Amino acid sequence: MSLTDELYRETILDHYHHPRNQGELNNATIKIEGVNPLCGDEITLYFNADDKTLSDVKINSHGCSINTASGSIMTECVKGQSLENVKEVINTFKTMMLSKEDNTELSEELEELECLRGVKKYPVRIKCALLPWNTLQQGLERLSSGKTDNQDQYVEK
Amino acid sequence: MMNIEKIRQDFPILDRKINGHKLVYLDNAATSQKPNSVINAISDYYKNNNANIHRGIHTLSEEATTAYEDVRDKVAAFIGAKETKSIVFTRNATEAINLVAQTWGKTNILPGDEIVISAMEHHSNLIPWQWLAQERQAKLRFIELTPDGLLDMESAKSVINDKTKLVAITQMSNVLGTITPITELSKLAHAHGALLLVDGAQGVPHLPTNVEEMGADFLVFSFHKLLGPTGVGILWARPELLEAMPPFLGGGDMIASVWRDKATFNELPWKFEAGTPNIADVIGAGAAIDYLMALGMDNVRAHEIELTDYALKAFQTLDDVKIFGPMDAKLRGGVISFALDHIHPHDLGQILNESGIAIRAGHHCCQPLMRDLKVWGTARASFYLYNTKAEIDLLIEALKEANKVMGHVAYR
Ligand SMILES: Cc1ncc(COP(=O)(O)O)c(C=O)c1O
């Protein structure tokens, strides 16, 4: 398979060129930045949530195609979901990207994530795909800690 | 004129295949490849002469010491330094800058003093000065760039004043390729009683360099960008400055006499070389100097002007390409940062790698400059003496291909 088939799939390019839920949320419950100092990917993630539901989410991406597409698909997967579900989606995606085996099943709602599976073959790019998800995870931790007002940054290691 | 095909045969890695294609190595600003003579010097040393230096009377130790110290003479000759004792071996350029900041800086920078650098410095020539300025309540000031990416001498004149104690500046930018007017800056700095530190990490490997002609007070560089091994850097400073500076790291080799409660320190340059140094790689570095001196740095520079000129023109045949930095090859080195519309540098790097072409993508350790340029990163192709016009043609072809892969046409 060529690089184009494997990595730069139609779906990825579509999300890259037309990212969903891009922009800012005024007065968001949580605003959190994510950076990958190695390659310079930077995102800002905004979401509104109470203790049960993540009602709205927006993302400002300045990353590569993989980073932008991953963030875009993520917003579609988690918007309007219960926090419980959101955490599960994060887990599913991270397991899919990080496990050695390639047998993570995606439910119908998460089908769109399938296009990112090919990224696994390019270890340096996995971090690009994970950045939005790790940033969301840290944002959720801040939400549950109750410290919603301070500026925070997730730094990819 | 250099015979590039012959030169290429000295670099075994250039025969490598990457993804089925012959390697096209265009990431020389990050690190250069190494000729056989360097690789062999290191393995010969381990096979035949390995011993610790400055401490044995046995044959091996003497041989190792002589080989190590001979390289100091070579470095002095290479950069036109008058005295061998003014050459200090470090791990890399970064360590050399930190050495100056921690020793000269801490004894010379006082509250209210000013340190001047430029808007295009590598983090290596920024962070140590940020720290020093914070610690000493000194002010860090910046020389700005002109719109075409040259150092703005009007800005230099306005920020360098009698409070300036140090001007620390790159000889050549690792992002824009810009070559800075070091001699002019030296005059300006000295007229205000300030010293000049030159970050030669990019300059020394590619430009004929003479510390006396430059009027520098400190020069730092790394051998891994200069055909040499990793793990060897140089600090050159005017000997009277080194004499007056306190030691950097403490330990073996840097001492003269030691008591339970005090010590006196070794003379130059060993005062600054605590512990067992990187003997093998210093010897490899000596072979790198031999290689470049045999070719002549004027010839290296001439080849790179020719390549850069060719590349700058070739880039302009691409659609939607932006080149950062000066467009006149004589004012810049062979480092070309560029952006293609709507293709993130990270994606470009990956697509080019499919064709065996190695470039760098990212912020190049110059985040403040990236912010000034209002980009998140750039793609960067950088050349050295073994690169050819044919390789630049391959790069340009691959960039056209990248436009297709990323659906550029369909998107617009
Ligand atoms: C202009 C400049 N200064 C300093 C450095 C730091 O060199 P090193 O990492 O070898 O210490 C580099 C290397 O990237 C550079 O390009």
Can you describe what's shown?
- The complex is a heterodimer of chains A (157) and B (412).
- With 157 residues, chain A is of the alpha+beta class.
- Chain A has a single domain (3-155), classed as Sufe protein. Chain: A, CATH 3.90.1010.
- Helices cover 41% and strands 17% of the residues of chain A.
- Chain A contains five helices and four strands, in the order ααβββαααβ.
- Chain A has helices spanning 3-6, 10-17, 65-78, 83-98, 123-145, and strands at 30-36, 41-49, 54-61, 153-155.
- The longest helix of chain A is centred in the last third of the chain and has 23 residues, at 123-145.
- The termini of chain A are far apart.
- With 412 residues, chain B is an alpha/beta fold.
- The termini of chain B are far apart.
- Chain B has helices spanning 4-8, 36-49, 59-78, 93-108, 127-136, 153-159, 182-191, 203-206, 211-214, 239-244, 279-295, 297-315, 345-354, 367-373, 389-405, 408-411; strands at residues 17-18, 21-22, 24-25, 87-90, 114-118, 139-143, 164-170, 195-199, 218-222, 233-237, 255-258, 263-265, 321-324, 335-340, 357-358, 360-362, 378-382.
- Chain B has two domains: 4-26 and 297-406, Aspartate Aminotransferase, domain 1 (Alpha-Beta Complex), CATH 3.90.1150; 39-294, Aspartate Aminotransferase, domain 2, CATH 3.40.640.10.
- A seven-stranded mixed sheet of chain B has the order 4-10-9-8-7-5-6, with helices on both faces. A four-stranded antiparallel sheet of chain B has the order 13-14-17-16, covered by helices on one side.
- At the A-B interface, helix 2 and helix 3 of A face helix 13 of B.
- Bound molecules: pyridoxal-5'-phosphate.
- Residues 92-94, 122, 124-125, 170, 174, 199, 201-202, 222, 365 of chain B line the site of pyridoxal-5'-phosphate.
